[in-house]
Write a structure and sequence with these properties.
Its EC number is 3.6.1.1. InterPro entries: Pyrophosphatase, Pyrophosphatase_sf. The protein is built from three helices and ten strands; from the N terminus they run ββββαβββββαβα. It has helices at about 70-80, 150-165, 185-200; strands spanning about 25-30, 35-40, 45-50, 60-65, 90, 95-100, 110-125, 125, 130-135, 175-180. A hairpin with a 2-residue loop joins β7 (about 110-125) and β8 (about 125).
Length: about 200
């Protein structure tokens, strides 16, 4: 029987049969977007979060891994790696950036990606990790298996975006990134976020 409803992109789709080696990604934003979109947690529809106020445009495909959540396990992992000022997870699905050489023009799509590393971002005391991944079978990025294989300029471009996208010229910086980690730790973060999801939503 063909289902007569659309699966919720956060709760109704798995993280992937081979997660954390290969994960499903729900893409919310693409590099050409001047509006920040995000999934409405209640309905599952993509909604306008806010217009981008300045020239900081996301340099990669951006979304989340389904059936993940950032709370105690993700926070504890951040503390274990030296984050002294983190008090909780950010209570959202785990964010992920996917590098691809293809010109994907709109979000609201699913894709498979290979995690290669990530950024341990702390946003006002909240653990808000950003996983970095590559599109499966991408002609330019698809062979990469660890963030150390990326050009330094590519990493710096991603770092600059996340360190500046919430900032206003008249306010102090709201976020910091103390750790850039590789594929092994990225997989630990994904597993921690899956446990946080199970603990909060699969009871």
């Amino acid at each position: 029987m063909i289902p007569s409803f659309k699966a919720h992109p956060w709760h109704g789709i798995s993280a992937g049969e081979n997660a954390p080696e290969v994960v499903n990604v729900f893409v919310e934003i693409v590099p050409t977007d001047t509006i920040k979109y995000e999934v409405d947690k209640e309905t599952g529809y993509l909604k306008v979060d806010r217009p981008q106020k300045f020239s900081n445009i996301i340099p990669a495909l951006y979304g989340f891994i389904p059936r993940t959540y950032c709370e105690e396990e993700v926070k504890n992992l951040a503390v274990a790696t030296g984050a002294a000022d983190v008090t909780e997870g950010d209570h959202d699905p785990l964010d992920i950036c996917v590098l691809s050489s293809h010109n994907i023009t709109s979000g609201n799509i699913l894709m498979e990606a290979i995690p290669i590393g990530g950024f341990q971002m702390i946003d006002k005391g909240e653990a808000d990790d950003k996983i970095i991944a590559v599109l499966v079978e991408d002609q330019v990025y698809g062979h990469i298996r660890d963030i150390s294989e990326l050009p330094k300029a590519e990493i710096n471009r991603l770092l600059h975006y996340f360190l500046s996208y919430k900032n206003l010229p008249t306010e102090p910086a709201k976020v910091k990134i103390d750790l850039v980690y590789g594929a092994d730790h990225a997989k630990k973060v994904i597993l921690a976020s899956q446990k946080d999801y199970t603990d909060n939503y699969a009871k």
